[in-house]
């Protein structure tokens, strides 16, 4: 078991999300940076979909009530066990009764704490992920608070620290043209692909709100609500794009100008308010190649982990 001493700004239990319920209006939820959670889980011997903690800025402190192995990936935090500093992205051991302190981030936005055995909260609709907007899943359907005691899964038999290099971040976000791209003016289509968009401080787990030159349609349109998904880029009447993320709604009536490819969604999880990003037009084949690159990364990672065990 772990006990929350300092909860951070917005810390939630997340796995890779819940599938099969979008037709009921239930968002996927899950880690915004799926690759970071998967990396953390592999380093501590968990299945990819094991639940961990997603940290969003601030100071987070945990007291461990059993010996455990843990790792922190994603955004770079200062990591300490007591007064001892720990490397980011490495598996380390902590003893029962010790306190883990995380302060940051120095770079990035969201970090992922994986513990051997996983965070063992109840499964709700096929997932342990927290969907705060619906008070669903995770620990009591909310962000963690001081005094929360979170159960852990069965302790694993691990022998030594190991670490991994995370793939580098860039502000280039690859995207496919959306079904309503042609409804926008030629100038707006050009602006969308050529501009640097600034991340708004109104962004959250539902969506990354962007600010820049307003986009406009050739003529007013009345669209029926239609299915949307994480990565969908909608343009409301303000002309400022919104990239839907894991907690975003399941349907929407705003025109969809583009869709961020799955392989780059993690970058949006790591952008801070004020950061700038630029969309790059790619083909479906290039999107598939990008997913394959991630598959190869995790294949090589697992081989390296197995060779160190």
UniProtKB/TrEMBL annotation:
GO terms for molecular function: ATP binding; hydrolase activity. Gene3D superfamilies: Cyclophilin-like. The keyword Nucleotide-binding applies. InterPro entries: CT_A_B, Cyclophilin-like_dom_sf, PxpC. Keywords: ATP-binding, Hydrolase, Nucleotide-binding. It holds the Pfam family CT_A_B. This is Carboxyltransferase domain-containing protein. It comes from Shewanella violacea (strain JCM 10179 / CIP 106290 / LMG 19151 / DSS12).
């Amino acid at each position: 078991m772990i006990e929350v001493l300092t909860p951070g700004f917005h810390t939630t239990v997340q796995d890779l999300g819940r599938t099969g319920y979008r037709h009921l209006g239930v968002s996927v939820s899950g880690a915004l940076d799926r690759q970071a959670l998967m990396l953390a889980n592999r380093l501590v011997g968990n299945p990819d979909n094991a639940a961990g903690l997603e940290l969003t800025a601030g100071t987070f402190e945990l007291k461990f009530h059993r010996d455990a192995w843990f790792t922190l990936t994603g955004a770079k935090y200062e990591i300490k066990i007591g007064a001892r500093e720990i490397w980011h992205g490495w598996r380390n051991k902590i003893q029962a009764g010790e306190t883990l302190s995380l302060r940051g981030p120095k770079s990035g936005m969201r970090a992922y704490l994986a513990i051997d055995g996983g965070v063992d909260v109840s499964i709700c609709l096929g997932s342990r992920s927290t969907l705060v907007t619906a008070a669903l899943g995770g620990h009591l359907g909310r962000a963690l608070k001081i005094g929360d005691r979170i159960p852990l899964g069965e302790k694993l038999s691990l022998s030594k620290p190991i670490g991994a290099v995370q793939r580098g971040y860039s502000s280039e976000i690859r995207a496919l043209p959306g079904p309503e791209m042609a409804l926008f003016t030629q100038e707006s289509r050009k602006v969308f692909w050529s501009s640097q968009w600034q991340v708004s401080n109104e962004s959250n787990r539902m969506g990354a709100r962007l600010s820049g030159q307003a986009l406009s349609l050739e003529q007013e349109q009345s669209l029926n609500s239609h299915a949307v998904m994480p990565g969908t880029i909608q343009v409301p009447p303000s002309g400022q794009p919104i990239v839907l993320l894991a907690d975003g709604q399941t349907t929407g009536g705003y025109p969809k100008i583009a869709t961020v490819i799955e392989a780059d969604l993690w970058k949006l999880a790591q952008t801070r308010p004020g950061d700038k990003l630029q969309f790059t037009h790619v083909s479906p084949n290039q999107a598939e190649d990008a997913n394959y690159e991630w598959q190869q990364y995790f294949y090589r990672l697992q081989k390296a982990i197995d060779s160190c065990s």
